Amino acid sequence: MKTTQSNQDTVNALQELLQKNYDAEAGYKQVMTKTENQHLKNWLQQKALQRNTFATELDHQIRKHNAEPKTDGTLKGDLHRGWINIKSTLSKDTDEALLEECIRGEKASVEEYESQLENFNNNPEIKTIVQSQLTTVKSALNTVKKLEDIV
């Protein structure tokens, strides 16, 4: 595949989503270690695995466009995980505080996916993958909001 501006734009958008998934996976794994609630741990583990699957799908699409996928998340994601450490240390209700941060992270993911979606209008295969991932992220956001109400 030739390197065109359109191809580079597609790769750049995929890279952004890839990094967002690395951040989300790391965030879920971090939060998982901070809770004692086994049901919550299991759910967080499932979300981390799901984000790993998303990253693998995006990695595959980047490679199909003759580009090398990024291998780690963003500085913003690192900072958010640092804030999670501080907040969980200072909070009286750790699970609620952790879920609040999951909500923040998922809202950021939804925004990222929605902003990148139009970049794939000329590639139905990628658009279908990204739309499916967005739907799953929105579902996770709704679930984590419900979990916060229960905890």
TrEMBL record:
InterPro entries: CHP02284, DUF2383, Ferritin-like, Ferritin-like_SF, UCP029477. Residues 9-118 form the DUF2383 domain. Transmembrane segments: none annotated. NCBIfam families: PA2169 family four-helix-bundle protein (TIGR02284). This is Uncharacterized protein (TIGR02284 family). It comes from Olleya aquimaris.
